[in-house]
Amino acid sequence: MTTAEAAEPLTVPATRGSCPFAPPPSYERAREQAPVTQVTLWDGSRCWMVTRHEDVRAVLSDPRFSSDGSRPGFPHLSAGRRALAEETQVFIRMDDPEHARLRRMLTADFMIKKVEAMRPEIQRIADDLLDRMTARQSQADFVAEFALPLPSLVICRLLGVSYEHHQFFQDRSRILLHNDSTPDDVGGARRDLRQFLTRLAEEKQKEPDEGIISRLVARGELTPEEVAATGLLLLVAGHETTANMTALSILALLRNPEQLARLRDTPSLTGGAVEELLRWLTIVHSGLGRAAVADVTIGGRTIRAGDGVLVMLNAANRDEQAFTDGAELLVDRDARHHVAFGFGVHQCLGQPLARLELQIALETVLRRLPGLELACSFEDVRFRHDMAIYGVHALPVAW
């Protein structure tokens, strides 16, 4: 351990700085001074924190780092998060070959060509939501009226789940993702969702449709409970991540009016701007956990078998060695090598869908609401510092 580390023990999660879009200053200092360093977690346990872009990619692409949350040493950021990992067996918390076997069952549903075919339907949903939002009023909560229902509607249709249950899903998703949820809270929310989705899987056996859950059931390789676990993962990830990225992206552009104007004047930049916003915002602020299953040297430091590792995607995505002027939001930057979706075999399966939803959302909102502005002071916006997926709890806007 270096003198700097001993003088200033690092903790995760860390205190945030003055800019709510930026990683905590201690993560950024670590990236520059000790990019592979030990940190203290909520329960007093220690793990390694990796903050440099090159090193993050090295960890996430190395099979000697396990994604299995039940392994000794795996870093959990709260008691509730630990309970969820121990009780929920989903493929993102498995290693190959089991991870690959389950992931392959879903790959075809999220291929770029298939996702792109959904563009007209997603565009119609976006327009319908804006029609309803603007017909009734001159200001609204952008999260509740647009950012959240857009991906929720899409993922419900993909899975074959009725959207009328969306509040049920969102309430329980919030519990699963809240940093302060107790193991009992997490267990209850998980149980509610698993029971609902298990019943749904059983119904799809009798009355199949074109949704993902029905197709997983029809394969005959998974039990209804295993189908439910996969459905739970897709449901939570499918609306929480994109919803928060959409709202944060609009807020970030409103706070960077030159970049907003450039994007509005040149819609052809939208695809690249989405990559830059993914990099700059990186909504997984709490890092991705891994457990070493062998001794590995990363960034000149030896990580021993059984040690836990947190890779900080948000710090890596501001690394000046990978992104010149990384602290700046530049909508015309080539940011395609960001790690906002992770890296390696576990990188986000649904990233083609997330990209498409974000592209449609940004282009549509900027085109149809040229006078869009915050309807409150920036200081009054409540950021989701208390959640596993970063974002804002609400975003009052006017047009």
Characteristics:
Cytochrome p450, three-stranded antiparallel sheet, disordered N terminus, 17 helices, 399 residues, alpha+beta, 10 strands, five-stranded mixed sheet
Characterise this structure:
The structure is a single chain. The chain has 399 residues and is of the alpha+beta class. It has a single domain (3-398), classed as Cytochrome P450 (Cytochrome p450, Orthogonal Bundle). Helices cover 50% and strands 9% of the residues. It contains 17 helices and ten strands. A five-stranded mixed sheet has the order 1-2-8-5-3, with helices on one face. It has a three-stranded antiparallel sheet with strand order 4-10-9. β6 (296-298) and β7 form a beta hairpin. α12 (212-219) packs antiparallel against α13 (224-255) and α13 (224-255) packs parallel to α17 (351-368). The radius of gyration is 21 Å and the shape is globular. The protein starts with a helix and ends with a strand. The model is unreliable at 1-7 (pLDDT under 50).
Q: What can be said about this structure in brief?
A:
The chain has helices spanning 3-7, 25-33, 53-60, 79-87, 98-107, 112-116, 119-136, 142-147, 149-159, 166-177, 183-206, 212-219, 224-255, 257-265, 270-281, 313-316, 351-368; strands at 36-40, 46-50, 65-66, 139-141, 288-292, 296-298, 301-303, 308-311, 373-374, 396-398.
